[in-house]
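RETRY 2/3 - previous attempt timed out on the joint model. Re-submitting the same 404-residue input unchanged.
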Amino acid sequence: MKHLTPSELVDLAEGTLDASRAAHADRCDTCRGAAGAICDTLHRASAAADVPEPSPLFWEHLSARVRDGVAGERVGTAGFGAWWSTAMRGFVPVAAAAILLAIVSMTMTLRHEPVSVAPPIASAPVAVGVGADQDFDTAIDANTNEAWEVLTAAAADLQLEDAHAAGLGVQPATVDRAVQRLNSDELNELGRLLQTELKRAGN
Amino acid sequence: MSTRAWFLAAQADSGCKVAVTNPTDSELVSAALAGDREAFDAIVERHRRHVYQLCYRFAGNHQDASDLAQDVFIRAYRGLKTFKGDAALGTWLYRIAVNVSLNKVGAKTPRPEPLDALMRASDARITSAAESASDAVLREERAAQVRAAIARLPKKQRATLILRMYHDLPHEQIAGILGSSVGAVKANFFHALNNLKKLLT
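RETRY 2/3 succeeded.
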């Protein structure tokens, strides 16, 4: 005889299976085992039967919240309003994503324009080995940027010889090429920074 | 005319002071649709406990459950015209509650109740003199394990298990709530229990 189906096993566990099929379970270890497993799980699941009883004040509070929630609405207004609400729910994330994309695109474009203001100053040492042909990320704030933290943590144990061996050293004329790319404002700012550093080193 | 006035008028009309003190759900729905806010209040009052408890099963904590329950009744108010009366109002509210809960909670792991809240609830439920505080803690831990395992079940299995196991609804009513056949509900229940067993071992 065919084994009991999942539906019949549920009926067996709940005591509603008709007698002819229940008789099969008496003779079949597989079905009896499966029904036993269901009963065992039902028993274990009963451990979570109770829902913690909220404060007695909660029920009236819930009613009041519902009253407030529907205040000003007419009953049974699900229709165009609901459709509009659903449509807007779908539209808003898409619109937000489009705006974000536009902002990112503009930022990327502007980043490639000549910098006319002094970039934020990184308090940590500038990473070595960045060629003059590469762009500096002028938005890096060494005190807060997580990527910078990861980089400095990874480089903390790096020896100078190892860095050179890995091609991370400053190449000849790299600094010269970088300085040549600076405009007059940036050169002035660089000069000011160097003087500040020299004064601090002299103290 | 408010519900209270309507009851009084009905009482006067019928000459009976008892018969209409407990209006049926259908009567309350009709009154609410006619613009009687008190009738809808009465519906909320009548069904809020079951709706909250169902939401709690999905949310796993009081705060989210109360938000969900509020949402359920607001949606019910907005959609009251669509209630045809071919099923019980409670079943209709359950259907809304399941949909709202699965939509809002289904995609994320439910945030469990803070431990101190559970302990307060546990303290309140130490009814037997023989049950010590540590027994109550163990019982609560077991319950939390089961709730966490249920939260990991697929949506339909979770809903079926909750409605059958904890709300004691017949398979036919669950089928109506979930829009499935009775056979599918029983099969879902079977698979839910099988998966729950695996998750608890």
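Residues 9 and 34 of chain A are 7 Å apart (CA to CA). Closing ticket.
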